[in-house]
Amino acid sequence: MRRTWWSVGLAGGLLVVAQGRPADPDLPARGDRPDAIFVQVQAEPKGKEPPKAKEPPKAKEPDVIARTDVSQEAPESFFTRMMGDWIGTYYAEQIVTLPGTQFTTRTLTTTRRTTQLVLVNGELVPVPVIVTVPIGTQTTAAPTLVTTVARVPVLSRGAFKIGENESPIPEDRFILTYNGYSGVPGALPSQAGSIFDTTPGLPISSAFAQTRGGIRARQPVLVTQDLIAGGSPTLVQTIVPSPNTFVHREVIGFEKTLFDGVASVGVRAPFFQQQGDGSLAGSDFGDLTFVFKYLAWTNGPDALTAGLAVTAPTGPAIQTVEGDIHSTILQPFVGARVQSGDLFALAFSSVAFPTDSRDVTIMFNDLAVGFVMNVSDPAGLVRWVAPTAEVHVTTPLTHRNGSGPISVPDLVVLTEGVEVGFGSGTSVNLGVAVPVTGPRPFDLEAIFQLNFRY
């Protein structure tokens, strides 16, 4: 019945449209004789020119709010991108197993006969006695594994920070990124009162000094033990050197424009591998990050964007002494691009809010400056080169100074590099990053980023 009423309504609508449509003036109605048509032409008065036809009003130029189809109109060098610095400078308080060395120092003794004056009946009388005299020490070393509480870097969240291989301009592209981090501390001493002791003046055996090339200070050392073994005083020291590791991280993803280039959506999928000893080594798939970007204003190469990055807990959970933590991270951000001649600047500012209160809220502020050099004609392989310098500031807003199971240090990192444009739509970023404040999450970062626009 409902389908019948739909059919009747559709037919009635078509009839109404047909009746309301004006008749064709060139075709007379059927059965009617066309009347004669008289055309009266009025003569123009002499001495007056015929009035000029009015020019149609010029269309008002639209206000510049958002560039339409930026990817089609902008030159290739318009899409310079910020390289970034992020390794995942989260530190989680975990129970880890680390390789160490246990040094046992036994005091060697001998006996000798001597006399002591003893008061007997009010008189001092020499009495023969045997005393134990130390003649040296003997140190032995043995490898051991130590299970303890320490702070270890968290790598599973990957490149979720917005200022990583990103431009304020929405674009269509595929992403392939590699980051290598050297000198990553596999474990840091935990809070004050832990079993780690980094006092520089703590005695360290000569055997340990020789095995470490004479470096004695600031190595994590477990609390020493004094005991009696076999009747001789014995000192036991278990030393756990700070384990430095090397971290590899790869990111694959894409970005797709929407609404004629005014907005875009992107996906980042990270992988990581950590080389280390004990329980520090491992590899896994990290958390997926979805980036939603909207181009709020643009004027030529200058642009202002806003958006949201959402990091979903798809990777492994963060293990802590207070249980596993696996937050979803909401990261609203604003970005900007300005250009004057060949000089340009990129900026991002964002705040990452976790859904778990035990996690850390972080503010990121990033700035990049550079200039574009066109090095060949449009038919050449290398089209342009853009040297770039960046500064990245990370500021924890909660759980400062290691007050929670997860902490983030205040950090400033400098990044230097160059972006090279190849052919039509392909560009490569090559760079290095160095932390300039501590504790340093790494010594040196190597950056390779490939972007292919489609």
Ordered list of secondary-structure elements with their pairings:
Elements: H1 2-20, H2 70-73, E1 90-120, E2 123-154, E3 173-185, E4 188-189, E5 196-197, H3 206-211, E6 221-222, E7 225-229, E8 232-239, E9 244-258, E10 263-275, E11 282-285, E12 289-299, E13 302-311, E14 329-340, E15 343-354, E16 362-371, E17 373-374, E18 382-396, E19 406-407, E20 411-422, E21 426-435, E22 444-453
Antiparallel strand pairs: 1-2, 1-8, 1-19, 2-4, 3-9, 3-22, 5-6, 7-8, 9-10, 10-11, 10-12, 12-13, 13-14, 14-15, 15-16, 16-18, 17-18, 18-20, 20-21, 21-22
Helix residue percentage? under 10%
Low-confidence stretches: 1-43, 59-73, 191-219
What order do the SSEs take from the amino end to the carboxyl end, as H and E? Answer: HHEEEEEHEEEEEEEEEEEEEEEEE
Cα-based radius of gyration, to the nearest Å: 38 Å
Count of helical segments? 3
- How many angstroms separate the termini? 51 Å
Into which percentage range does the β-strand content fall? over 45%
> Given this structure, which CATH class of the largest domain is correct?
Mainly Beta
**pLDDT averaged over residues:** 77
Structural class: mainly beta
What's the CATH superfamily of the largest domain, by name?
monomeric porin ompg
Q: Tally the beta strands.
A: 22
CATH architecture of the largest domain: Beta Barrel
Number of domains: 2
